[in-house]
Amino acid sequence: MDRSVKTTLTNLCLIYDDTGHVLVEDRKNPNWPGITFPGGHVEAGESMSVAAIREVFEETGLTVAELQLCGIKDWINEDGSRYLVLLYKTNNFIGKIKSSSEGKVWI
User: What does pTM read for this prediction?
Assistant: First the structure.
């Protein structure tokens, strides 16, 4: 019996500073708009944490480190495939916050 299932791997990263403020992104994508954390899809051959670090840099200009896995969300799509989101958090980052084509970011 084949137990493999097509799965989309994604991540989000909660970034907070020493005062407890949290970085958020106002996404421009009309298919998934609104306030969220930076993150995105895992590329083929890429680890989950490396993908989160890459996505955060692309969307915020920040380089993050010491990611802690703090949550997992998944669901089954109508076609039977799965969608998996790993949520990380960190307060270890360097760089200057800058928005991207994904959306405006602020802390």
Answer: 0.92
